[in-house]
Specification:
- By secondary structure, the chain is of the alpha+beta class.
- It folds into six domains: about 110-180; about 180-260; about 265-360, no CATH class; about 365-475, Beta-Lactamase (2-Layer Sandwich); about 485-645, Reverse transcriptase/Diguanylate cyclase domain (Alpha-Beta Plaits, 2-Layer Sandwich), CATH 3.30.70.270; about 675-695 and about 720-900, EAL domain (TIM Barrel).
- It contains 28 helices and 32 strands.
- The strands form six sheets. Strands 23-24-26-27-28-29-30-31 form an eight-stranded mixed beta barrel, surrounded by five helices. It has a five-stranded antiparallel beta sheet with strand order 2-1-5-4-3. A five-stranded antiparallel beta sheet has the order 7-6-10-9-8.
- Helix 1 crosses helix 5 (about 265-310), helix 5 packs antiparallel against helix 6 and helix 5 crosses helix 7.
């Protein structure tokens, strides 16, 4: 049978259709395979990328958390250094630091703080919020920021800092605990985070239960199935940690994320075949029409963009909206997405333009000037507030440096140069502005500037300038008040010490000398007592003016406190220059000062020391000048003494030798606490003991308290000495019978310390001692030297339960009216009256003092009882407590305990 043309055409069409179908089938199979392989590859890649991204984000969160801890550590260290606690002595420092960190405990965020002396390696202080203290290794490497406590199984972040109090370098560690809760806060939702040390899991955001299924620590990425759920897991190394055995193990951060929306391969393959077949079938049917529609819509996008570009900034016209709606005809393709995105960008640009105008209006309300100027200083643009700052309405051809005070132009140019050359992000500087209408008055402004660049080239500087005249003047006033005496307006101790350090630093480089003098007004207390404190204050002001007249412009006159002044004379060539200044100072003395028509005598005692002849540093220079001043007072007052002059004398050399040895003895706590029993005059029983200071010097032997106690007061060491004896006394009281009381002497410096009450209470609390067991002995001269201040301290001590005894009564001021205002419990009859009690006048004087004690309802104690006759006489006169060699001499604590065991009745 012969086929016709139509049949051939039909056959050819069929063959073409079969071949086309076969081609489409092959195309579909190949594309399905490619799609499936691509799907598997991309799924695996996306899983890796996803978990890698989450790990990086989580690591960034850890870094941010570490930076926050670093900031907290710096802030806490600044507070400690500013408070000056590290510069104090060990006991006082540790107590203050313990109290400080306890007060900061809820806010500081660190579980522990450890401090060691860098030079000696000796631990100085530790504070822990937990009861169990880890054995922290202070000798960590300087770059080590993470430490693992093998024994406690705790991971710490370690913030290492160094502090430099005078003469020391301290190594400080701030330790923060890593725990499951912290890990949970940092983790992402529906994920589990682990901390691994080698293969050992330490922490889990899921708590301790999560540690049971922790991933291994030696794989960076893997998948596993747990409880029927597929997870992808990854890890990254955070740090390297050396264990107690010396092994260096990686500290890794691991993340577990469930795999969601996992599609079976068969479904992917079937879907891909269906999609490719459908795509092949529809390709030739729709591509022509689609290309036509696509061209029209793209043309609409182009015209809309050009229209928006040519229109006024911030205006989206109705014509532009129509063109964008034309491009969005099909809401499901990329062109529609681009059209929607372009519409959003245009809307945001219009909103941003409106916001910028609002910001500029707000800045004008705040009177902050926003300016931009070229690198040469030519003003390019500025807000209206700039015109208010400069008083100039014309900004064209204006140079910013023409509006700044000439003295500040150089510093501003340097800052701008540093901004450009050192690639800083911004700089902040204060300077003075000039106003066209008021050039006489200075206006202080604060400017913050940042560079404007095009690529790698800086083209201009942009900044904000604010008027800070009022706040600047207030800061200067506050700074002046902090560094000057409120009465005389002289530099105070802080400013003096700063200038003294600078003067000594200059002198050490140039080979010059620095003279320092202590000046103490003679009999100034009599002026206050006779004419009142108002006249005394006026006299101090007049003295300030007189002393200033005799000094050079480069010298510093400072008020040290009360009626004491300090003179600092830097940059001296020879010792004669210092003597010339002291001659001028002495010349202004001996001239009466007239206040309210009353002539008041004006003399002073002064002591001078010279660097580097007499001292090697500022502290020693102050100490030597203070000693020279006390020597001048001992010579009858109204004279000036140089330290090098008195140090050359034989007695002076011996005294200074003892002083140097005393400083070492106090520092090394070699001053011993001895006890002397207190005996009841009625029963003869031992009721307590008095703590007395004793010092044995290897070359000089036993130094009498009457020698080294005044020395310690003059050298400023009496507070340390008193604290040492006080601590030894508390330790001895624990060994004594419960009914025993202990009498301890307080010095003037101790009594007038702001922290005396807190310190004494902390000490007795730590020793588990009742304050009522302790009688604090205060000499009459100290108690009545500044009655208002002393009474305030004594009342506070009395309220806390301490007993108060007035020692050496009758040899000081003996002001009964003032004594009546002090809440004392005991009056102590001085030994000088006891020794003369068998004389008629002495007996009358002792009887009078005992009568005063009875009138004030005070217990009377007599010291210096050396025989039975005196003891019986004092008991018959009403004395309740006796003390003296008749019963026992002062003795070391061990000897006292042996004596007490052998003499329970005091005999």
């Amino acid at each position: 049978m012969i086929s016709g043309p139509n049949n051939n055409l039909t056959t050819l069409k069929q063959i073409f259709n079969l071949r086309l179908m076969l081609l489409l089938a092959i195309f579909s199979l190949v594309m399905s395979g490619i799609i499936t392989a691509t799907y598997l590859y991309q799924t695996n890649k996306m899983n890796r990328v996803s978990i890698s991204g989450q790990l990086n984000d989580l690591k960034l969160r850890f870094n941010d958390l570490q930076r926050n801890w670093t900031t907290d550590a710096n802030h806490l260290l600044n507070l400690v250094e500013w408070s000056g606690m590290m510069a104090t002595d060990d006991p006082q420092r540790n107590n203050r630091m313990q109290a400080f960190f306890s007060a900061q405990e809820e806010n500081m965020g660190f579980e522990g703080i450890a401090i060691e002396d860098q030079a000696s390696g000796k631990p100085l202080f530790e504070y822990w919020r937990t009861v169990e203290k880890p054995r922290v290794q202070l000798a960590l490497q300087e770059d080590q920021s993470i430490w693992y406590d093998d024994r406690g199984g705790v991971l710490y972040t370690v913030e290492q800092r160094y502090a430099y109090p005078p003469g020391r370098k301290l190594h400080i560690l701030f330790l923060r605990v890593w725990d499951n809760a912290m890990l949970h806060r940092l983790s992402f939702p529906d994920t589990t985070t682990f901390i691994l040390l080698g293969d050992r899991p330490l922490l889990s955001s899921a708590g301790n239960l999560g540690l049971k299924t922790a991933p291994p620590g030696n794989k960076e990425y893997f998948e596993q199935t747990l409880n029927g759920i597929r997870y992808q897991e990854g890890s990254v190394t955070l740090n390297q940690i050396r264990t107690r055995d010396g092994d260096l193990l990686p500290l890794r951060l691991a993340l577990r994320v469930p795999i969601s929306n996992f599609m079976p391969i068969t479904l992917v393959l079937a879907s891909s075949i269906g999609v490719t077949l459908l795509f092949a079938a529809l390709l030739f049917l729709v591509i022509g029409r689609w290309l036509s529609q696509l061209g029209t819509r793209l043309d609409g996008l182009t015209r809309a963009s050009l229209k928006f570009q040519n229109e006024h900034v911030g205006m989206v016209t109705p014509e532009i909206i129509d063109l964008l709606e034309l491009a969005e005809a099909d809401k499901s393709d990329q062109v529609s997405v681009v059209a929607q995105g372009l519409s959003g960008l245009m809307t945001k640009a219009a909103q941003r333009d409106a916001e910028q105008r609002a910001y500029l209006q707000t800045l004008d309300l705040l009177q902050d000037a926003v300016i931009e100027f070229s690198l040469s200083g030519r003003l390019l643009r500025a807000t209206d507030a700039w015109k208010d700052l400069t008083g100039n309405d014309a900004t064209e051809d204006c140079n910013i440096f023409d509006c700044i005070h000439p003295d500040d132009c150089t510093s501003l140019r340097e800052q701008i140069s540093a901004l450009i050359e050192q690639n800083k992000e911004q700089v902040s500087i204060r300077f003075r502005m000039l106003r066209d209408n008021d050039n006489d008055k200075q206006y202080w402004v604060e400017g913050r500037f940042a560079p404007v660049s095009t690529g790698e080239t800086f083209v201009s500087i942009r900044g904000v300038v604010r008027d800070i005249t009022n706040s600047y003047l207030q800061e200067r006033q506050i700074s002046h008040m902090a560094l000057h005496d409120s009465l005389t307006d002289l530099p105070n101790r802080v400013l003096l010490e700063d200038r003294m350090e600078m003067a000594i630093s200059r002198a050490s480089r140039s080979g010059l000398r620095v003279a320092l003098g202590f000046i103490d007004l003679d009999h100034f207390k009599q002026v206050n007592d006779s004419f009142g404190h108002k006249v005394g204050d006026n006299m101090l002001k007049q003295v300030t003016k007189k002393l200033h007249m005799a000094l050079r412009s480069t010298d510093t006159l400072s008020r040290w406190g009360g009626d004491e002044f300090v003179v600092l004379c830097p940059d001296l060539n020879t010792l004669e220059d210092a003597r010339e200044i002291t001659n001028k100072l002495f010349a202004v003395a001996n001239e009466d000062i007239t206040i309210e028509g009353t002539n008041l005598p004006f003399t002073f005692s002064a002591g001078f020391a010279v660097y580097p002849d007499d001292a090697e540093n500022a502290e020693m220079l102050l100490s030597q000048a203070d000693r020279a001043m006390f020597y001048a007072k001992a010579q009858g007052r109204n004279n000036i003494q140089f330290f090098n002059t008195i140090a050359a004398k034989e007695s002076g050399r011996e005294t200074f030798y003892i002083q140097r040895r005393l400083m070492q003895a106090v520092h090394n706590e070699q001053i011993q606490c001895w006890l002397q029993p207190l005996i009841s005059a009625q029963t003869g029983m031992v009721i307590g003991a008095e703590a007395l200071a004793r010092w044995y010097e290897p070359e000089q032997g036993w130094i009498p308290p009457g020698v080294f106690i005044p020395m310690a007061e003059n050298m400023g060491q009496i507070d340390k000495l008193g604290q040492s004896v006080w601590r030894q006394a508390l330790q001895s009281l624990v060994l004594l019978p419960e009914q025993h009381r202990l009498s301890v002497n307080l010095s003037k410096r101790q009594l007038f310390s702001n922290s005396i009450v807190t310190r004494l209470l902390d000490d007795v609390k730590n020793a588990n001692i009742d304050p009522e067991q302790i009688m604090l002995e205060i000499t009459e001269s100290i108690a009545l030297s500044d009655v208002a201040y002393a009474r305030e301290r004594i009342i506070e001590l009395d309220k806390k339960g301490f007993g108060i005894a007035i020692d050496d009564f009758g040899v000081g001021y003996s002001s009964l009216s003032q004594l009546h205002e002090i809440p004392a419990d005991e009056l102590k009859l001085d030994i000088s009256f006891v020794r003369r009690i068998h004389e008629k006048s002495g007996l009358s004087m002792a009887a009078a003092i005992i009568s005063i004690a009875k009138a004030l309802d005070l217990e009377c104690v007599a010291e210096g009882v050396e025989d039975e006759r005196t003891a019986e006489l004092l008991g018959s006169m009403g004395v309740e407590v006796l003390q003296g060699y008749y019963y026992a001499k002062p003795m070391p604590v061990d000897d006292y305990l042996s004596w007490l065991a052998a003499h329970p009745n005091g005999n």
